[in-house]
Amino acid sequence: MLELLAWGDTGWGDELVRGTLMTLAVAVCSFALGQVFGTLGASAKLNGGIVTRALAEIYTTVVRGVPELLVIYLLFFGTGNAIMGVASLFGYTGYIEVNAFTIGTLSVGLISGAYSTEVIRGAIQAVPFGQIEAGRALGMSRARILFRILLPQTLRYALPGLGNVWQLTLKDTALISVTALAELMRSAQVAAGVTRDPFLFYAVAAVLYLVLTSISTYAFDRAERHSNRGVRRA
Amino acid sequence: MNLSIMWDAVPKLLAGVPVTLQLVGLALLFGFALAAGVAWMRLSASKLLSRIAAGYVFVFRGTPLLVQIFLIYYGLGQFQAVRASIFWDILREPYWCGVIALTLNTAAYTSEMIRGGVQSVPHGQIEAARACGFSRLMVFRRIVAPIAVRQALPAYGNEIILMVKASSLASTITLLEITGIARRIISQSFAVFEVFIVAGAIYLLINFLITRLIRYAEWRVTPHLRRPA
Fold first, then answer.
1. In this complex, is the C-beta atom of B138 within 8 Å of any C-beta atom belonging to chain A?
2. Which of A42, A45, A46, A190 is deepest in the core (most CB within 10 A)?
3. Domain range annotation of chain A
4. InterPro entries from the entry (chain B) (predicted)?
5. Does B58 contact A172 at a Cβ distance shorter than 8 Å?
6. Which fold has domain A2-227?
7. With contact defined as beta carbons under 8 Å apart, do A129 and A51 qualify?
8. Which CATH homologous superfamily contains domain B3-223?
9. How would residue A4 be classed by pLDDT, with cut points 50, 70 and 90?
10. What is the SS3 assignment for B46-70?
11. How far does CA A213 lie from the centroid of its chain?
């Protein structure tokens, strides 16, 4: 049984580890993209006009109310079709395949962003308005208020919520296996199919996911403790 | 965008709604029972029971649901002992594998909500009830349960919606619920946008109704927060 997990051509150890690294890469990129979407969504919800606010509201409601798998399918099958549709307008009728990593990152990032929007919005609102007024009374510029008052506290308030979003994002990357991107879940599927030993490989995949989530939990705990170092506890 | 394809897809996709709701309903029902047991173990004075429960929650919250479904559906079937056992009648059915995976998954999350709810009950209230001569059962029924339910209901509402969304993963083990049917229609008609948009709208509608129901339930269990008419 252990020789199945060996390194190199005889076993699947290296494939699984490479899959884990790919999962990590997709998760990090999606999470980063999600922060961009989340910040845009939160500022749209808090400061936008009627149209941008409505758009942000539709974005979070739809993406959070529809199964993640459906979002991934829609982007995976849909983006290729859409790009080919545009290309055919310019007279190109060949088949265009969109890179699975890009599609995967985009779709999981979109999901991650919808959840981040709510977390960031709540964190911004948690900063007492009196502090911003105080900043203004001292003659601080908008940018300085943002960097000295709003941002440091928003980060602290958002950290626990963003930790949850990161865990969700990490686990959602498993769904990208439907696009045949060689991340951890897909590597386990291939190995299980070839060796006819699904239990072993899915169990190993589960353990590797557990390792990733445990390290994340630890890291976010540390980060939270670090960001709360100036806060007095009752 | 082809409206007639969308219109044709509506009845076909709606045929998957009962399967989705059954999966979710059964998983929530069994999951809640299991979660109550796990929460009881987690809160018990026995270190061993508490550790087992914590380990269970750790494993099922730390791994993707897809891995859990595949482990149960594909993984267990590889053992001759499982195939020879009486459980094989259940474990070879994708439907029941889906129900089992969703049950185990939701139970892990729900048990933490129950634990949080129970722990949110102020200790003084339990002491007061004891001082009034309440039996253990009575303390639970009259004091702990109502406060815990109020505390845990919003989070449990989110969990129900997460379950509706998670049930779409059952399509990966050949179950024909909403997502499974959507994929089958697309493989015949290639109308990706049309079909997935209708499927998404059905999920949104289900989740919208559930949020309404949960809000009503929250309103029912918090009469003390209502403004007098």
1. no
2. A42
3. 2-227
4. AA_ABC_transptr_permease_3TM, ArtM/GltK/GlnP/TcyL/YhdX-like, MetI-like, MetI-like_sf
5. no
6. MetI-like fold (1.10.3720)
7. no
8. MetI-like (1.10.3720.10)
9. confident
10. CHHHHHHHHHHHHHHHHCCHHHHHH
11. 14
